[in-house]
Amino acid sequence: MLAAAVFGLTVMAYLVFLSHGPPSVAVLPWLAGSAAALAAMIVARLLGRPTHGPLAWILLGQVLAVAPDLALAAGVAHRPWMNVFLGHLEIGNASGGVIGWLIVVAVLAAGYAAQPTLQTPRTPD
Asked: Rounded to two decimals, what is the model's pTM?
Protein backbone atom coordinates (compact mmCIF):
# COMPACT_ATOMS: atom_id res chain seq x y z
CA MET A 1 0.00 0.00 0.00
CA LEU A 2 2.73 2.45 0.98
CA ALA A 3 4.76 1.45 -2.09
CA ALA A 4 1.81 2.25 -4.35
CA ALA A 5 1.31 5.61 -2.62
CA VAL A 6 4.99 6.55 -2.94
CA PHE A 7 5.03 5.48 -6.58
CA GLY A 8 1.82 7.40 -7.32
CA LEU A 9 3.08 10.57 -5.63
CA THR A 10 6.40 10.32 -7.44
CA VAL A 11 4.76 9.93 -10.84
CA MET A 12 2.30 12.74 -10.16
CA ALA A 13 5.02 15.12 -8.97
CA TYR A 14 7.24 14.17 -11.92
CA LEU A 15 4.46 15.04 -14.35
CA VAL A 16 3.89 18.38 -12.62
CA PHE A 17 7.60 19.25 -12.69
CA LEU A 18 7.92 18.02 -16.29
CA SER A 19 5.68 20.91 -17.32
CA HIS A 20 8.31 23.34 -15.93
CA GLY A 21 11.25 22.23 -18.06
CA PRO A 22 13.15 19.32 -19.59
CA PRO A 23 12.83 15.85 -18.02
CA SER A 24 16.25 16.07 -16.37
CA VAL A 25 15.13 19.13 -14.40
CA ALA A 26 12.18 17.15 -13.10
CA VAL A 27 13.90 13.86 -12.31
CA LEU A 28 17.27 14.91 -10.85
CA PRO A 29 15.97 16.09 -7.45
CA TRP A 30 13.98 12.87 -7.08
CA LEU A 31 17.07 10.80 -7.80
CA ALA A 32 19.17 12.88 -5.40
CA GLY A 33 16.54 12.46 -2.68
CA SER A 34 16.42 8.70 -3.24
CA ALA A 35 20.23 8.51 -3.15
CA ALA A 36 20.39 10.50 0.09
CA ALA A 37 17.75 8.29 1.71
CA LEU A 38 19.50 5.09 0.63
CA ALA A 39 22.82 6.41 1.94
CA ALA A 40 21.21 7.33 5.27
CA MET A 41 19.65 3.86 5.54
CA ILE A 42 23.02 2.22 4.84
CA VAL A 43 24.68 4.33 7.54
CA ALA A 44 21.87 3.53 9.98
CA ARG A 45 22.28 -0.19 9.38
CA LEU A 46 26.07 0.05 9.73
CA LEU A 47 25.50 1.72 13.10
CA GLY A 48 23.27 -1.15 14.14
CA ARG A 49 19.99 0.73 13.85
CA PRO A 50 16.96 -0.84 12.18
CA THR A 51 15.57 0.91 9.13
CA HIS A 52 11.84 0.38 9.29
CA GLY A 53 9.76 1.67 6.39
CA PRO A 54 12.40 2.15 3.69
CA LEU A 55 9.86 3.61 1.29
CA ALA A 56 9.01 6.29 3.82
CA TRP A 57 12.73 7.14 4.06
CA ILE A 58 12.90 7.47 0.26
CA LEU A 59 9.75 9.59 0.12
CA LEU A 60 11.17 11.89 2.82
CA GLY A 61 14.43 12.21 0.88
CA GLN A 62 12.55 13.05 -2.28
CA VAL A 63 10.37 15.65 -0.55
CA LEU A 64 13.48 17.23 0.96
CA ALA A 65 15.15 17.37 -2.45
CA VAL A 66 12.19 19.00 -4.21
CA ALA A 67 11.30 21.45 -1.42
CA PRO A 68 12.67 24.40 -3.45
CA ASP A 69 10.43 23.40 -6.38
CA LEU A 70 7.45 23.33 -4.04
CA ALA A 71 8.43 26.82 -2.89
CA LEU A 72 8.79 27.86 -6.55
CA ALA A 73 5.25 26.67 -7.21
CA ALA A 74 4.18 28.92 -4.33
CA GLY A 75 5.91 31.92 -5.93
CA VAL A 76 9.32 31.88 -4.21
CA ALA A 77 12.14 32.20 -6.75
CA HIS A 78 15.11 29.85 -6.60
CA ARG A 79 17.96 31.28 -4.52
CA PRO A 80 21.50 29.97 -3.82
CA TRP A 81 20.61 29.15 -0.19
CA MET A 82 18.25 26.50 -1.54
CA ASN A 83 21.29 24.28 -2.11
CA VAL A 84 20.89 23.20 1.51
CA PHE A 85 18.11 20.98 0.12
CA LEU A 86 20.49 18.26 -1.12
CA GLY A 87 22.24 20.63 -3.52
CA HIS A 88 19.01 21.34 -5.35
CA LEU A 89 20.36 24.03 -7.68
CA GLU A 90 23.70 22.33 -8.33
CA ILE A 91 22.43 18.81 -9.00
CA GLY A 92 22.33 19.42 -12.75
CA ASN A 93 26.03 20.34 -12.79
CA ALA A 94 27.14 16.89 -11.65
CA SER A 95 28.89 14.74 -14.23
CA GLY A 96 26.72 12.12 -15.84
CA GLY A 97 23.37 13.88 -15.50
CA VAL A 98 20.36 11.58 -15.18
CA ILE A 99 22.35 8.46 -16.16
CA GLY A 100 24.97 9.23 -13.53
CA TRP A 101 22.35 9.70 -10.82
CA LEU A 102 20.59 6.49 -11.90
CA ILE A 103 23.89 4.65 -11.47
CA VAL A 104 24.42 6.20 -8.02
CA VAL A 105 20.90 5.20 -6.92
CA ALA A 106 21.34 1.67 -8.33
CA VAL A 107 24.67 1.20 -6.53
CA LEU A 108 23.25 2.50 -3.25
CA ALA A 109 20.13 0.32 -3.59
CA ALA A 110 22.34 -2.72 -4.19
CA GLY A 111 24.45 -1.77 -1.18
CA TYR A 112 21.38 -1.44 1.00
CA ALA A 113 19.96 -4.73 -0.24
CA ALA A 114 23.28 -6.52 0.33
CA GLN A 115 23.41 -5.57 4.01
CA PRO A 116 21.98 -8.08 6.44
CA THR A 117 18.55 -7.17 7.71
CA LEU A 118 18.53 -6.23 11.35
CA GLN A 119 15.83 -7.89 13.36
CA THR A 120 14.27 -5.94 16.18
CA PRO A 121 13.88 -8.28 19.14
CA ARG A 122 10.28 -8.78 20.16
CA THR A 123 9.36 -8.43 23.76
CA PRO A 124 6.68 -10.68 25.19
CA ASP A 125 3.38 -8.92 25.78
From this structure: 0.70
